Amino acid sequence: MHLTNQCHSEQHGNGYLDTCRIIELSCEIAFIPLILPDHMVNLERWKLILGPSSDKAAPVELNEEEQEVDELLNAIYGDKDKPGFGKSNNKIKRWLDGIRLKFPVEVVQIMQADALERQGVKEMLLEPELLEKIEPSVNLVATILQLQHLIPEKTKAVARALVQKLVQDIEKKLKPKIQFAVQTATRQHSKPCPPSAANIDWKKTIYRNLKNFRPEIPAIIPDQWFGFKKGYKLPQIIILVDKSESMINSMIYSAIVSSVLASMKSIQTHLIFFDTEVTDLTDKYTDPVDILFSIPCGGGTDIALAMQYAYQQIQNQNQCLVFLISDLYENGNKNELLASCKKMTDKRVKLISLLCLNDEGSPDYDIQMAKAITALEIPCFACSPDRFPDLITTHLQD
After folding, report:
1. Which helix (H) or strand (E) element contains residue 17?
2. In angstroms, what CA-CA distances link 161 with 89, 106, 116, 251?
3. Which of 45, 323, 336, 382 is deepest in the core (most CB within 10 A)?
4. pLDDT at 31 over 60
5. Where does the chain have alpha helices with state H?
6. Cα–Cα distance between 388 and 390 in angstroms, integer?
């Protein structure tokens, strides 16, 4: 269960029913942890949903715990004419403590985001004692990154720790999948060969010749060698990320994915951010948190320029996978962008256009440009982080 994120008000009785406050009811009634008689649950729950101004002619009495939940909801979803927190850090602190006690983590994250958006509670990000109480989410980290220039020195360490916690949680989920995907896609099978005719696969050669171990030397005398073809080049993955503000959630996931890929010796990974200029972080992304705090988001968008730069980095055309992560709102030359896309595919470079890399569902993007790219037989779609490893396996093996 969760609070809806869509906000509008409509006249309701003597007051206003704010639909942000409405709790989506599922078949599992477990959102508010109250023990109520069966015949009372719906009345009390609807009272909490509709707010204190609902149905004054037939008021529903709330017990002490229900009143506490009602006050927490009213702070951000109540009467807009009354300030929810004012300028009181103590109120914000008590509210953060309260919602963490009364609501599940997923709901806490939504309520925190709503407090930032609806009440303008920037104090949550400026005071370390408040920031420490916030449950990290992708949207909240995105807000921190956007406002990092406003965060005072005393709070920066706490802000960084909060971002680090989110990054570690995401990395823990994605890292095994990404590593398995790359290992599957890049697995080479060495074959019997003369020792001078190939790059030796020492692990397989030793394993297959253990029977030839001579204890008196002591050494293994191989009677069969295994190796790879000479001239083998590591596959390349180039991640090209639009850093406009609308793409900031995708930036977060891209930094995490790239840091995992960069730790693997079986591929070459390039991470490139762009607006109207290109920032290549290929040798600097061991820590995704460093990346996120070093790349300011916002600015214009010149995708064509970024694509031309990415093309110059390609060393192994037959085994190169380029991810263009952008909503495709091009402020540069659109014809040059399409020409760059075609140039890559003509050289057998595998190019995939991801309209976003996040869990938010349908993104906002330039439909006409997406159609033009699709017409070049380039895959163009939105992708969740969980599905990203599958793209590596599928397209790097082709």
Report:
1. strand 15-18
2. 21, 20, 19, 18
3. 323
4. no
5. 38-50, 64-77, 89-102, 105-118, 123-126, 128-131, 138-146, 153-186, 202-208, 248-262, 288-294, 303-312, 334-346, 367-375, 388-397
6. 5
Q: Which two tokens stand for residue 107?
A: 């709901």
* Residue ranges of domains in the chain, CATH in brackets: 9-135 (no CATH), 191-228 (no CATH), 236-397 (3.40.50.410)
Dist. CA 227–CA 235, nearest whole Å:
18
- Distances 367 to 32, 235, 333 between C-alpha atoms, Å: 41, 31, 16
CA distances 76 to 7, 160, 340, Å, are 12, 26, 48
Predicted model pTM: 0.68
pLDDT digits 0-9 by tens, 73-103:
888 777 655 555 655 556 776 787 788 788 8
First to last CA, the chain: 42
Confidence of residue 13 (pLDDT cuts 50, 70, 90): very low
State yes or no: pLDDT of 184 exceeds 50.
yes
Cα(137)–Cα(108) distance, rounded to whole angstroms? 10
Please give the pLDDT value at position 179.
92
Summary count for the chain: helices (H), strands (E): 15, 13
Residue 207 burial (C-beta neighbours within 10 Å; 0-12, 13-18, 19+): exposed
Round to whole Å and give the CA distance between 198 and 230. Answer: 5
Asked if the model's pLDDT at residue 388 lies above 90, the reply is: yes
Instruction: Report the pLDDT value the prediction gives residue 330, as an integer from 0 to 100.
Output: 94
Tokens at 260, concatenated:
């995992």
DSSP state, residue 324: E
Is 214 exposed, middle or buried (CB count within 10 Å of its CB: 0-12, 13-18, 19+)?
Answer: exposed
Cα separation, 213 vs 203, whole angstroms: 15
